[in-house]
Amino acid sequence: MSSRSDTILSRIRWSGALAALAALAALVAIGPPGSARASAATGSSFDQITGSGLTPSAVTVSWKEGLLNDSNQAITASNAVRNDPTQANTPLYFMYQDPDFQNLQVKVSQTEDLADQGITVSWSGASPTNFVGGAPADNVLQIMECYGDSSSGPSPQDCEFGTDSQLGGQTGSLMSTRGGDLCAASTQPPGPGNPIASLNGQNALWGCDPEEPVQGASASDVSPTDPTQYEVPFVPAPAADGTQGSPAYGRDETNQYFNAFNSNEVEAAVSGSDGSGETQFVTLTGTQAPGLGCGLLDPSTGQSRNCWLVIVPRGEYEPNGYQVNPNPGAPESAGSYIVSSPLSASNWAMRIQVHLDYAPQQNFCPIGTKETETVGTQLVERAVQSWQLALNAQANCSRIFGYSAVTEAESTTQLDNSSSGVGLAFTTIPIGSEAARDGTAPPPNPLPPMLYAPVAVTADAFGFNISNANGFYATPVDLSPELLAKALTQTYASDIPDYYPTATVGSQAGGVGIVNPVNDVGPPWLGQNLTGTSGNPLNISFDGQFQALNGTQPKVFPNGTFANGNGFAPLAPMLTPDNSALNQQIWQWIQADPGAKAWLNKGTQGIIAPGNALSENVDPSYEKLQLGTPPAIDSFPRAYSCVTGALCKNGCLNEGPDIPESGSPVKDVTRCSLDLLPYVNNYDQAATNILAGIDPVFIHWDSEAIAPDGSTGWWDTEPPQQLGSRWLWGISDTSDLAADGLVDAQLCSNAGTNCVGPSTASLTAALDSAKADSTGLLEVNPASPGTGGYPLTQVVYAAVPTNQPAAELNDYADLIDYAATAGQTPGSTSGDLPPGYLPLPANLQAKAMAVVAQLRADASPAPSPSTSSTTASQPASGTGTGTGSNSLTPSGGGRPVSSTTPVAGVSIRPPSAQLAAARTPGQPVGSVRWLLLAVVIAGAACAISGTVLRSDGVVRWLRRMRA
Predict the structure, then answer these.
(1) What span, in angstroms and rounded, lies between the C-alpha atoms of 304 and 357?
(2) Structure confidence by residue, pLDDT tens digits, 41-87
(3) Which segments of 512-554 does DSSP mark as H helices, in order?
(4) DSSP secondary structure string for all residues of 336-363
(5) Is-contact 280 123, C-beta < 8 A?
(6) Is the pLDDT of residue 667 over 60?
(7) End-to-end distance of the chain based on CA atoms, in angstroms?
(8) Which residue, among 288, 286, 287, has the nearest Cα to 298 in the 3D structure?
(9) Among 25, 76, 93, 582, which residue's Cβ finds the most Cβ atoms within 10 Å?
(10) Cα angle at 541 between 540 and 546, to 5 degrees?
(11) Percent of the chain topping pLDDT 90
């Protein structure tokens, strides 16, 4: 920590592109599970589809027995002081006897076979959190991940913590940092009646720690820049070659290991009025957090490195005996909030520690190993990663399976090109049929004959992360067709780039701001005024229909709805930019509702939401698309076009010239829909962003941010949303939502009836209602998914062209064989079926195994002149998972499948998808898609622009303000 005498407020600027890329690499990478010593078969309360509930490795621990060893058994000697009333005269007695800790009990949902995922941490027996200035002030839990090779637990130097990014800077609290004040000498032990002042002369409310600096630590806790302060360095885990990185002091140095955008620390998990709470904690492997190395090979032991979950409860006492005096009505009132770091020796002594057993991260096979390539839908990514690791291990690297998530069109291109090296694509639709849907050109070559084997049942879903003063909101959120229609069409005021009523001259530091001569309330159709009391709602939480379905409890968007005082932030869902049948099914579900369908096409007449006198009007740019008219589109356009107003320019918000700093050029500043509402790359990124509280929106102007052209001054991203005022949601799949522990949405009627969320029962019901398409693949109709069926249920098939060499056909047969049998066992070890997937029913397994037999027969046909070719036939017209061959039918042209023994259910289909593509007219928004592609590229450039990370100078400023 820098010296307090330093009076300059410094700002540390990282390159926006580097920060975004680092965050993406850290958050998007999935640490695949490897083999582990014990099965992670689910417990009785565990839901296979949502991932909610406890696994067999769940741990419940009280604070009194909170120091656990590497077998998660209480360390009796270490816990003795917490249970011995004779310790009343020892240092820190006032903390050990704190009633905030005495009744605390914490439950961790999973502690074994961990990968990059979310685990649920819940607790009871705490004191309700107090808030100051909208930020948690005391009675919170601080949670972090640490490595540590000792069986007795980690050191605070081993922990990823201290980005100071989640409390919003709304108080002078430093409890989200790694340092603080040393104490002055005192003849009396610290306590409530004798709080000790700081060594540098600051008064007791600064919460100095009399147990610092720690003696004998691997690296000194004394600040390298100020001898009156302690600074707990981060000492990274040894690398694979055994080398040890240098201790990192201060945020300048720890940023090389973790920062605000990729840290998994929880700086202040809040407890509700009953003293209970819950939060989702993301466990990071050595792939995402190299400084921790969890799951990677420990060079000192030759085993995979395991890690620790550390929970530091914070009550109302500082280590020096000072008792805070919460006063929620007085923001930043001196002494009203906890200041000291959880890593200081005294606070660290109060910790709960739980051992985390990671599934080993697989080493790469040697370069040159034969790789059998697969591609396909992102829905199956986590399952395939599990299966391929088991198969690669079984083959001892003599053969390895690769996998890349690609779009539907790319799957067709790969299988249509025999030189691509790809011979299997995972898909929910017939290969090539996306051309008919999009109205694009069919594949240039006749598709080869293809076999389809069912391998997974999963679903699209919407996931939420909402927290307020009562903690994590764990109740499923209800969505209706009308609500979703509005959320996907920029209907709410905060989703409009030129709804910007708060910008003022000189609003930025140093008088540098934006010239905004008027308060812009957006286009006339929005009907908004400066106070937000008329016109379309500010965001979905203010929509009367949302409140009628969910109550007002989730309405927690940050205090006054402002972000940095410089603009209203959206509550729009995170969406992907791809064209897919998955997206189309969401629109089909919306179109199945007469009210939503009519509103999308005649939006100026509005929907009168229950309990709300407002009439929401559709943006005319979306109304022109006629999104309520079948066929449903397969993308989520950003179609808003700004056409009126002094600040409207080329469809974007034009804020006029930036007031330059000395020597800087004057330039026009614009913000478009993709700056305000950028897309995320895929379902995994959506889920991880939601879990981490990172919304990739550009909601305020920053004169120091790096613009796409390399100059300074641009719209800037925000750090993770503040705990206790967090609301993020978006599209993903059930496997990613389950892995990250996000709350699923229930899809309801507009009246709030017939609500169905993803579950084992609802996916099973939908699967029973599925009907075969013209190629024989099962599809769930979102408009009629069966009684209790989840409308976005998907069946994933492995599509294999049969015109491949025998070796490849056998390889893919092995993959399907494993996926359809051993790979359908729920669990989290390598080879298991991860949460989020419904195990295949027996009849679909049989169909998959029929394809396996056909592939192997085709690879090794009997040398008989009587070998026959299976002739073309129409698929059975049966429905659902009943008898018949409609889940297995091959498609495409080319040579027939050869077999001396015909396999039941296998047939060859002509290339009907190609013929349909040639005659199906394009969709009315085809030109919009091409425009969107160009805008996405531009938006991506914006999305990697500069990110401001606060420096230790900000900490000094906050401390000085508090003093």
Answers:
(1) 9
(2) 344 567 889 888 888 899 999 999 999 999 999 999 999 989 887 76
(3) 544-550
(4) SS--S-TTSHHHHTT-EEEEE-BPPPPP
(5) no
(6) no
(7) 17
(8) 286
(9) 582
(10) 75
(11) 41
pLDDT in tens, 418-441: 788 899 999 999 999 998 887 777
Mean pLDDT of 675-704: 83
According to DSSP H, which parts of 31-121 are helical? Answer: 76-83, 93-96, 99-102
Tokens of 364: 């790469």
Choosing among 3.30.420.10, 3.40.720.10, 3.40.190.10, 3.40.50.20, the CATH entry for 371-459+757-861+873-919 is 3.40.190.10
State the Cα angle at 603 between 601 and 606, rounded to 5°: 135
Query: How is 256-313 classified by DSSP, letter by letter?
Result: TT--TTT---EEEEE--TTS-EEEEEEE--TTT-TTT-TTSB-TTTSSBPPEEEEEEE
- How far apart are alpha carbons 451 and 799 in whole angstroms? 6
Distance CA 473, CA 551 (A): 12
Sign of CA dihedral 888, 890, 896, 897: negative
Closest CA to 52 of 386, 461, 383: 461
Alpha helices, DSSP H, located in 635-682: 673-676
Spell out the residues 6+ positions from residue 656 whose beta carbon is closer than 8 angstroms to its own.
514, 515, 516, 517, 647, 668, 669
Question: Given the DSSP bridges, would you call strands 371-376 and 422-427 parallel, antiparallel or unpaired?
Answer: parallel
Place of tokens 């007219």: 921
Residue ranges of domains in the chain: 59-108+116-358, 371-459+757-861+873-919, 481-750
Q: Which of 432-436, 610-614, 773-777 has the lowest mean pLDDT?
A: 610-614
Q: What does DSSP say about strands 140-147 and 159-160: parallel, antiparallel, or unpaired?
A: antiparallel
Residue with tokens 């419904």: 838
| pLDDT given at position 444 | 72
Nearest to 428 by CA among 389, 377, 388: 377
Cα–Cα nearest to 222, from 174, 178, 282, 276: 178
Pair 332, 353: CB distance under 8 Å: no
For residue 554, the 8-state DSSP code is T
Per-residue confidence at 722, pLDDT binned at 50, 70, 90? Answer: confident
Across the strands, what pairs with 771?
779, 879
Q: Which amino acid is at 954?
A: V
Peptide bond into 631 cis (omega under 30): yes
The kind and range of the H/E element at 16 are helix 16-28
**What's the whole-model pTM score?**
0.78
Per-residue pLDDT tens digits for 869-900: 333 322 333 334 433 333 333 333 332 333 33
> Under DSSP, is residue 729 helix (H, G, I), strand (E, B) or coil?
strand
Q: Is 607 helix (H, G, I), strand (E, B) or coil?
A: strand
Three-class DSSP category at 213: coil
Report d(CA 870, CA 858) in Å as an integer: 12
Partnered with residue 132 across adjacent β-strands are 135
The lowest-confidence range among 42-56, 121-135, 462-476, 655-669 is 655-669
Question: The tokens of 2 are what?
Answer: 């820098």
Closest alpha carbon to 516 in 671, 641, 661, 662: 671
Neighbour-count burial of 12, counting CB atoms closer than 10 A to its CB (0-12 exposed, 13-18 middle, 19+ buried): middle
Long-range pairs for 8-12 at CB < 8 Å and ≥24 separation? Answer: 8/953, 9/509, 9/953, 9/954, 9/956, 9/957, 10/951, 10/952, 10/953, 10/954, 11/704, 11/948, 11/950, 11/951, 11/953, 11/954, 12/251, 12/252, 12/255, 12/948, 12/949, 12/950, 12/951
Mean pLDDT of the chain: 76
CB distance 141 to 302 below 8 Å: no
> DSSP letters of 222-249?
B-SS-TTEEE--B-PPPPTTS--PPPB-
Tokens representing residue 68 in the block: 């656990």
Distance CA 118, CA 110 (A): 9
Helix 16-28 and helix 683-692: axis angle, to 10°? Answer: 100
